[in-house]
Design brief:
This is Metallophosphoesterase. Pfam families: 5_nucleotid_C, Metallophos. Keywords: Hydrolase, Nucleotide-binding, Signal. The protein has 466 residues and is an alpha/beta fold. It contains 15 helices and 25 strands. The protein folds into two domains: 270 residues, Purple Acid Phosphatase, chain A, domain 2 (4-Layer Sandwich), CATH 3.60.21; 185 residues, Alpha-Beta Complex (5'-nucleotidase,  domain 2). The strands form six sheets. A seven-stranded mixed β-sheet has the order 6-4-3-2-1-14-15, with helices on one face. It has a six-stranded mixed β-sheet with strand order 7-8-10-11-13-12. The chain has a five-stranded mixed β-sheet with strand order 20-17-24-19-25. Strand 1, helix 1 and strand 2 form a beta-alpha-beta unit. It is globular.
């Protein structure tokens, strides 16, 4: 006799709730259909469901996301870096207190004491006809951030060394929920024959029909849940082994929305508005924002960053502010809308010659007009870099391109060999946007504060009642 095991999954929603009612409708219908046919079916999520870019996630610190997953009927989830390092320690500790599903993450360690009550390294589930499935979860080890929040993420391969053989002895099938990225998933598949399925995320890769590496089928469904994934495993009870592994993704962007979920989201919007309606400051006149020229608000924000971090100088790209502040009351919701990025302040050490190169690169048209997606940035373009603590003199060439003519700090030329402490957005410590910043061997991140927390302080200090 053969039995089919069905897993439906989501990954990297990033609080894209415009799509969520479609996700809910698709998953609830799929689960109801399979259960009506007396077939085994599980709903799983691979993390980064929470993203504080959305006011619902911001107002409820991710707990509303958990409630929405409860409503759909998820069975097992793991979490990603957007749950792990964009929430204060206590907010993550209590994030899943009311979850009706299991949370698995084998490499989480609480540096303040015991792990949360909801924490499970792995869980075992059983099919209708008795097939035992072990589900283990892993999340990306961003310990430069986690440890500032009193968590530690253990090395994924070391954890798998501890758990895989034990799971293989207890279960018939092993499924890994991996918020590690496609390269790590492929390496794990090469190393561990016992793992049958890796359902992935984090790097937003889309594998329409899966990918087989060694003995393992790997799958992932992109980002924002435009696609929902499905894994079908066929177990032969006579042979006592899997005889077929399939993985598919379905584009659900055209499907009808689940009406109850849509109503729940509308209710949450109303509730989040109430949470974020606190007035921060009252403005006599509108605060102008521009992505491609200096403005007073950006100058003051960068000054706040420099002073708050006690750095030698500071720099922020003007694209972090998405809109102007209108005259009248400015609320927490306004600040969140205008600066929605889950970006933390940081300080890096740069030699003078590296700082000069960074400043020159930031004035290129290619840099300012870059339409960045990811690295915490949720805006349109990077925009002009604004500086505090350093004076930059520029000229416009005949071709219209701006170039750096002179750079000084406190009236003196930059010492090419001196190490300066430069405050900026953590965005620039990743990837290749500013290589000198990314490769700096000295980086200090500030958590759990976001740039918008410094923006709030700036508005209160510089634009409040006088």
């Amino acid at each position: 006799m053969e039995e089919k095991l069905f897993f439906y999954y989501t990954n990297d929603l990033h609080s894209n709730f415009d799509q969520w009612a479609r996700v809910a409708g698709y998953l609830k219908e799929a689960k109801d259909r399979k259960q009506a046919d007396d077939q085994s079916c599980w709903l799983v999520d691979i993390g980064d469901h929470v993203d504080r870019v959305h006011p619902i996630a911001e107002a409820f610190m991710g707990k509303a996301n958990v409630q929405l997953m409860n409503d759909v009927g998820y069975d097992v989830v793991t979490f990603g870096n957007n749950e792990g390092i964009t929430l204060a320690h206590d907010d993550l500790y209590h994030l899943y207190d009311h979850a009706k599903f299991d949370v698995v993450c084998a490499n989480l360690q609480n540096l303040r004491g015991d792990n949360p009550p909801w924490f499970h390294p792995s869980v075992n589930v059983t099919s209708v006809n008795g097939v035992k499935v072990g589900i283990i979860g892993l999340t990306a080890p961003f310990n430069a951030f986690y440890e500032l929040l009193d968590w530690h993420i253990l090395p994924p391969l070391e954890i798998l060394d501890q758990y895989v053989k034990h799971l293989a002895e207890q279960t018939d099938v092993i499924v890994l929920l991996s918020h590690l990225g496609v390269t790590e998933d492929q390496e794990i598949a090469r190393r561990y024959d016992e793992i049958d399925v890796i359902i992935g995320g984090h790097t937003h890769h889309l594998l329409r029909t899966g990918e087989t590496v060694n003995n393992t089928i790997i799958t992932a469904a992109g980002k924002h849940c435009t696609f929902v994934g499905e894994v079908i495993l066929t177990w032969d009870h006579d042979l006592k082994k899997l005889v077929k592994k399939e993985a598919y993704t379905t584009d659900i962007s055209h499907l009808a929305k689940d009406l109850q979920t849509e109503q729940n989201l509308n209710d949450l919007i109303v509730q989040s508005d109430k949470v974020l309606e606190e007035t921060v400051v009252r403005l006599d006149k509108t605060i102008e924002v521009s992505w491609f020229r200096d403005t007073k608000i950006m100058e003051k924000l960068v000054g706040t960053l420099k002073n708050w971090t006690k750095a030698d100088c500071a720099m922020l790209n003007a694209g972090v502010l998405l809109d102007q502040f209108e005259a009248g009351e400015v609320t927490l919701k306004d600040i969140h809308r205008i600066c929605p990025h889950p970006i933390n302040p940081c300080v890096v050490a740069l030699k003078g010659d590296e700082l000069i190169e960074v400043i020159r690169a930031s004035f290129t048209r290619e840099f300012m007009e870059l339409q960045l997606k990811g690295f915490g940035f949720r805006g349109e373009v990077l925009g002009r870099m604004i500086y505090a603590g350093v004076e930059v003199e520029t000229e416009i060439r005949e071709d219209g391109q701006e170039f750096v003519k002179d750079i000084r700090m406190n009236g003196r030329a930059i010492d090419p060999d001196y190490s300066y402490h430069v405050a900026t957005a953590d965005t620039f410590t990743f990837g290749r946007l500013l290589p000198e910043v990314a490769k700096s061997e000295t980086k200090k991140y500030f958590l759990p504060e976001f740039l918008r927390d410094l923006l709030t302080n700036t508005l209160k200090k510089d634009y409040g009642s006088r």
